[in-house]
Amino acid sequence: MALLEVNDLKTYFRTDDGIVKAVDGVSFSVEKGKTLGIVGESGCGKSVTCLTMMGLNNRRNTITSGQALFKGEDLITMKPSKLRDIRGNDIAMIFQDPMTSLNPVHKIGRQLTEAIQLHRDVTKKQARARMVELLKAVGIPRAERRADDYPHQFSGGMRQRVMIAMALINDPDLLIADEPTTALDVTTQAQILELMNRLQREFGSAIILVTHDLGVVAETADDVVVMYAARVVERAPVESLFNRPHMPYTWGLLGSLPRLDADTERLTQIPGQPPSLLNPPRGCRFHPRCPYVMNVCKETEPELRPISNDPAHLQACHLDEQTKDREAAKLLSGTLAEAS
Amino acid sequence: MATDGAMASGDELLVVEDLKKHFPVTRGIVFQKEVASIKAVDGVSFTVKSGETLGVVGESGCGKSTMARCIMRLLDPTGGKVVFEGRDITRLSRSEMRPIRRELMMIFQDPYASLNARKRVGFIIAEALEVHKMGTAAEIKRRVQELLEVVGLNPEHYNRFPHEFSGGQRQRIGVARALAVNPKLIVCDEPVSALDVSVQAQILNLLKDLQDQFGLTYIFIAHDLNVVRHISDRVLVMYLGKVAETASRDLLYSEPKHPYTGALLSAVPIPNPALGRARKPIVLQGDVPSPLNPPAACNFHPRCPRFQEGHCDVEHPPLYKFDGGQIAACHYPLEGWPLTEEEMRRPSAKAQSTPAEPTPTT
Asked: Å from B52 to nearest chain A CA?
């Protein structure tokens, strides 16, 4: 059984303009010790999916349905008190912006020990020892002394390390990282990704990595979910996704990426804007921007179904497979030539 | 690299020589005493040829944006010279500067903060035209609508407010505003950092098309090496207010000489699982040091994998010129590329004796 199994998750927000379907029928699963990458443009529902699983949406205007089975228990229907036991203990989250997700008026050490003392019956001393151990594990020099510093005394990369230490302090089984490196420089990003990889090997946690950077996904994820307009449009093991992408939106994402490993005079751009989730297009949600649009795309929404010779690779597109294989090969020829 | 050369060829649109910007750190309330200075930009020299794109990369806090603002004269440089079209603009007064501002425009990073939320798009774009008195009201309106069309927006959206546009569209408005007065040089300060990849591709394509169409020259500042490689002809790598390396785009990415450039390149994730996982990135330790108290001699030495005690922390590396045309400030430049971590850490005997016949420039 998978560690986390999400089935047909839906999150709707009631707003003054109507109901925003921020997540509209998303399913995926995460195995123990593996990394799942979720990619997509801003506003496609990546973060809301994570927040929903953690029960962090505002209850007043949110309508949630579907299942998120964590070790067989449904996080969506769980009682708040039970969810509080799991949150920060079995499932931990790293947020995007390390500047705003730490409390500026408390010392780093206090913010970290709080997480232990909430979930474990330990003395202050034990909590502090564990906190220092974790700060050392994430590579903060002079950890005993730095624990008495305030967040503003840390640089961006250091703060992100503190966030990771906080998330890992109770040995979670699942770590949800929402754009953990987006606000950081490439060199710091490399440090943080290496750290997350190392900690995953040591602690054996599963990771959900939400990002818009396909490069980061290619280097760290085992499986990838591509989201577009609140829906999963493609889901596959990482090699399969990058070597044989099957959805025009994924091609668009790959093509619009300037990259070091290939020369492109002109980037393929996806025309237009992502649709409003208040009133998404009929049929396939990508059809207004899709260069391969057919009549059927405007009427019926494609099902997420496996491709012919790889049951693990799911995609939602009406286009026939020969055309897709041909187009994907065309897109990748430039980069593969350099790779060989 | 020197100005006289620039004058002779007449090709260089912008020459920056030993540009410095130091921000004073003061203590005391009534009698402010300068106790230290932050050397945000500390002796940067480069040239930009007409019609080319110079990419500038570096980590946050390395002085990229301060440099851009000094070139634009939005900040007054502490020292050095900025020569635009053969004229030293470093000490010009506001009124002398005004006609030159028509030639130098800027595109900013944040498309949300850089447009006045209370003005209509038409006004935002027309403002520069009105300041420079470039036509009657009717002519200006026609020009603005033409500009909106050029950057791929609907000319009928002339009367809308910025909040009615998405991030990518706002950045297009920023581009239209910069283009309005027909500038020669546009300084783009991280114009695509805040955008999604698909929108980023649209803006990058737009900037390239406009360059072909109007013969623009860009200084393109970014921290994303992929983006810089895509758009630039030459690239300048900055570290802590100084030039680490400059080279033509192809050379910089295929044969970097400075260890910092190498580390930056190896840290960029490659969107290809087989390739990306096969190589091992050279992970730099620690953070960028504070420019308030930069390390002695080579300012990269505390993080440098090929740091040699007694040399790198004592003797300041001059800018060496290499056979391929790269210019790098390093005593132990990289012998080749890619290097393994081990090779990176141990400079070979050849490298230790500094490059064959080094020609220090400037």
From this structure: 15
